[in-house]
Amino acid sequence: MADIIIKNGYILTMDSYELTQGVVVIENGTITEVAESTEQDADQIIDAKGSVVMPGFVNTHTHTGMTLLRGYADDFPLDEWLKNYIWPVEDRLTDEDAYIGTKLACLEMIKSGTTSFADMFIHIDKVAQAVKDSGMRAALSYRMIEAGNEEKGKSELDTNKRFINNWKGEAEGRIITMYGPHAPYTCSEGFLSKVKKEANHDRVGIHIHVLETESELNQMKQHYGMCSINLLDRLGFLGPDVLAAHCVWLSDDDIEILRGRGVHVSHNPVSNMKLASGVAPVPGMLDRGVNVSLGTDGCASNNNLDMFEEMKTAALLHKVESLDPTVLPARQVLEMATTSGARALGIKSGVLREGYNADVIIVDMNKPHLTPVYDIHSHLVYSASGSDVSTTIVDGRILMQDYEVVCMDEQDVLDRARTAAAGLVERAKF
Ligand SMILES: C[C@H]1O[C@@H](n2cnc3c(O)ncnc32)[C@H](O)[C@@H]1O
Ligand SMILES: [Zn+2]
Fold it and tell me: Which residues bind Zn(2+) (predicted)?
């Protein structure tokens, strides 16, 4: 007897381009069958008539606690935004803020079809607790800023290491742990080398912001006489264990280095547009074989966690940038948001395939803006939005069914988030 059978839906496995009517069978958190029909029975049958059944999205770069700062400081360049607005408020964040901010982020992601994500944040134990409680899957890293201060670097590294020791593989394996050095402009080369050594020792990955702005490029050239990619490569930092967010200001040589080292890149088009950071050379990276996935970044620079919006923005941005409408076609963008994201996090998700994690969503197509259907990839990227997701399953557990969130008390999360935000803004009046 299986746990769940999803039947009558159109199945988009992401293994092939085809959309065929069929069933998905789930047992013990794993997909056990994807077929036209099944002989099996299950404890729970989900009728997906008129819907698309597909892998959940993988958001490969966010800062979940920043949901509490949604709309707090808009329309500034990154340096000013971080130094004058974000960091002063984050310094006053409490454990409860981080917990409820992450709960709010999980609620938003579950409701819009994201099943796993990569997060870098502070109060990371509370972030992990919220992920565990919500039922989502996540690769979590503690944000380390050392700024050339040896003592601070030691305590930052200790905090990240303690987190890794306490949380690696927790929540039935749904929590993956990583090191999170913030960026090459907030961490010295000596510190970055130490992080790499510890990551190798602990056999975990590293999540880092890289070459997000021209200002970073100039600072690095001034300080080191080379860009962030060259510095990180010289340190032996780059490898398939590295998840590099942004990578906007890359040269052709940098792309070649990323490809050669097997670095995973998280592209964040909405955040890059909002902070006017620039346009990442995504078509060039994809052409050269770099694994590029999609991330929303935090809610203070997006200002939501909707991966449908991220997909559409990515597709449109690179068409207009290249003046070529054939660039980043819908199918390729869908792959970035699912299979490429799963590859970046090293998880067996992102496709509907036997033996893979049962991280599955159901998208309701019985909507005016999704009618008629010629090409499902087109609709998912250009017409659909997060609110079209009716059901979200992570690790074989139903977190939302028929638009009803069953893994947490939605109203309670909203109320607590409002209270936390009010307290935060009050404390930030300095
Ligand atoms: C993890 C921390 O990083 C900060 N942050 C949030 N968004 C960005 C960004 O786009 N670039 C660099 N740093 C960022 C914020 O303090 C987070 O808490
Ligand atoms: Zn970020």
Answer: 61, 63, 209, 297
Residue 111 one-letter amino acid: K
Q: Check if 121 has its Cβ closer than 6 Å to any atom of ligand 1.
A: yes
pLDDT tens readout for residues 72-86: 999 999 999 999 999
The CATH homologous superfamily for domain 57-345 is: Metal-dependent hydrolases (3.20.20.140)
Using the mean position of ligand 2's atoms as its centre, give its distance from the Cα of residue 210 in Å.
10
Confidence of residue 430 (pLDDT cuts 50, 70, 90): low
* DSSP assignment of 224-239: HSS-HHHHHHHTT--S
CA of 78 to the centre of ligand 2 (A): 10
The closest alpha carbon to 273, from 307, 305, 255, 297, belongs to 297
The rounded distance, in Å, linking the Cα atoms of 53 and 7 is 9
For 316-328, the three-class secondary structure string (H helix, E strand, C coil) is HHHHHHHCCCCCC
Mutate to test the pocket of ligand 1, among 62, 74, 86, 215 (most ligand atoms within 8 A of CB): 86
Residue bearing tokens 């940038």: 321
CB 152 within 8 A of CB 191: no
Phi/psi at 2 (5° precision):
-80, 170
- As a whole number of angstroms, the distance between CA 243 and CA 250 comes to 15
Residue owning the nearest CA to atom 7 of ligand 1: 298
Tell me the whole-structure pTM to 2 decimals.
0.98
Under the phi-then-psi rule, with left for phi > 0, alpha for psi from -120 to 50, and beta for the rest, what region is 221? alpha
Binding residues for substrate: 90, 182, 212, 297
C-alpha dist (Å) from residue 65 to 99, 103, 105, 297, 418:
7, 8, 7, 11, 13
Kindly indicate whether the ipTM for this predicted assembly is greater than 0.95, answering yes or no. yes
- Tokens read off for 283: 């078509």
Secondary structure letter of residue 329 according to DSSP: -
Handedness of CA 67, 188, 263, 317 (dihedral sign): positive
Nearest bound ligand to CA 98?
1
From the CB of 212, is ligand 1 less than 6 Å away? yes
Which fold, 2-55+351-405? Urease, subunit C; domain 1 (2.30.40)
Phi and psi at 346, nearest 5°, equal 70, 35
Count of other CB atoms within 10 angstroms of residue 419: 13
Contact in structure between 79 and 213 (CB atoms under 8 Å)? yes
